[in-house]
Amino acid sequence: MTSQRAGTAAVDEVVDIVSRLIRFDTTNTGEPETTKGEEECAKWVAQQLEEVGYTTQYVESGRPGRGNVFARLAGPPDSDRGALLIHGHLDVVPAEPADWSVHPFSGSVSDGYIWGRGAVDMKDMVGMALALARQFKRDGTVPPRELVFLFTADEEAGGQWGAHWLVDNRPDLFEGITEAVGEVGGFSLTVDRPDGEQRRLYLVETAEKGLSWMRLTAHAKAGHGSFLHDDNAVTDVAEAVARIGRHTFPLVMTESVSEFLAAVGEETGLDLRPDAPDLDTTLFKIGNIARIIGATLRDTANPTMLKAGYKANVIPQKAEAVVDCRVLPGRQEAFEKEIDELLGPNVTREWITHLDSYETTFDGHLVDAMNDAILAHDPQGKTVPYMLSGGTDAKAFAKLGIRCFGFAPLQLPPELDFAALFHGVDERVPVDAVVFGTKVFEHFLMHS
């Protein structure tokens, strides 16, 4: 490992890079014909990399405009270690400007924050990765292993026209990669200790639930709304939706969640044992992050869409609903059996989207490098594993046997409701957190 870097270039430009990334409106509606901005943003990213000497690959993932950018930074010529993938998506969920206190695509930097859609999901990490990639290339840095920077399309709609397409159709692009780091990990959670002090825990994502969007359908005989009907598709679907929406799935303790609860319990003195009498309620004493953690104790199935009918006085032939299902590792078969018992006799189901769950262990050299990087910049910090209740592009890369983690380090103010910022109004990230994260991420990459 050799380097002639000044060590400050990335920190100096990262805030501006994140702000400029947010100014690209890369709204992903989930419909290819109305999704926009990914190509323009990806080509700008490629330009920033080429400006400092990278050879980039711009790849469209199955549809025009679904732009992805690859760039590789070589490690030592005699290294026999696999490459590390650093990945981030460029698309964002929609935002309604009228609801925001600043324009969601302004990239405004004010009051100590960078504001805009994508600030935390995930143009902050994209900006850190891009700033560090530029610094490394400018300064002739040779990292301890080959680094592969990848900026993807379509993550917010499940990656069908992004990471999953790349993995299924261009696996050659991932040759030599053995491990990966991406979003929704490395951020701090400040907890209160029994002695009155506080401790910052940095949550490393080692697992994520499966993502399955399920369509429910019921059929019936059409008829006049004034007649008696004992066969009504709307009623059948509505009853199934109500049963599923009110159902509580059993508590299942996975390794990642068990380790997280043990670590937090040790720091706080809270009773977070799997058999604790009131675990769900106690969990909320650690703060708003409990909305994510609580959702990893059991499977969830939340109805999100209903569709039926075309006139007020006509019983329709068909009614449909969509349910957002998030399933714990190892639970898919049991989950489907439970759902089938809730549907009722006249309702059928089909998967619109199905992406597997993922879990890895919290050990090994890469985990040690994450912890060392945090401690180098926050000596009182501590890394702990956790499971993400949502999903990321890691689901795609895991299909290639790549070991994936979420590690986008941020030191957050204790009072900030970080979970609420994901897909929320007035999404923003602290400037200081991004600067801190860039320093930590540099240390991590140089010791990975």
From TrEMBL:
CDD domains: M20_yscS_like (cd05675)
Keywords: Hydrolase, Metal-binding, Zinc
PROSITE patterns: ARGE_DAPE_CPG2_1
Domain Peptidase M20 dimerisation residues, every copy: 206-343
UniProt keyword annotation of Chaperone present: no
SUPFAM superfamilies for the chain: Bacterial exopeptidase dimerisation domain, Zn-dependent exopeptidases
Signal sequence bounds: none
Keyword Chloroplast: no
Needed cofactors: Zn(2+)
Family: Belongs to the peptidase M20A family.
NCBIfam families named in the record: PRK07906.1 (NF005913)
Entry protein name: M20/M25/M40 family metallo-hydrolase
